[in-house]
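Both lines are retained for reference:
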Amino acid sequence: MPRALIAAAVVLLAAAPRPAFAQNPYTKAAMEHFDFIKGNLSKTAAKIPEDLYSFRQTPQVRSFSELVGHVADANFMICAVAAGEKPPQGGFEKKTAKAELSKALNDSIAYCDKVLAALDDTKGAAIVSLFGQSMPKLSVIYFNIEHCNEHYGNLVTYMRLKNIVPPSSEGGR
């Protein structure tokens, strides 16, 4: 094949539109992981009846309301680190009302979505400090996703003890 033809093919391939997954694959993956867990958390907060918000498995563990508030507080705090900002809200772990906690959780999710939308793979590689450790912003986002999953697991146990089917087990995403 003549060199000019090879060079033209390389130029055309380089200029061709790339599929969305090829652009910012790390950030896109983080968004997809957060989308999955945020849906389960939001549906859980809405699904649990108000009278069960005070339920705790044992006196030593957080109540349902404290768990939801804790996740909201952590979302605001951790995503603020990735954004390079102070948390815009907080103090929800001590709240007890379902409406207030559901709103706080959904607001914290929207805040994290905003932070993620402002990132790409290059910006996500910038180093920040979380709990005294230096790490890329996208690692901070993944830490938040892991934290959300950890506490969703707690909430699933609470729901199962009260014969409530968790959103992740309902099917039909």
In short: The radius of gyration is 21 Å. Confidence is low (pLDDT under 50) at residues 4-16. The chain has one domain: 29-43+62-169.
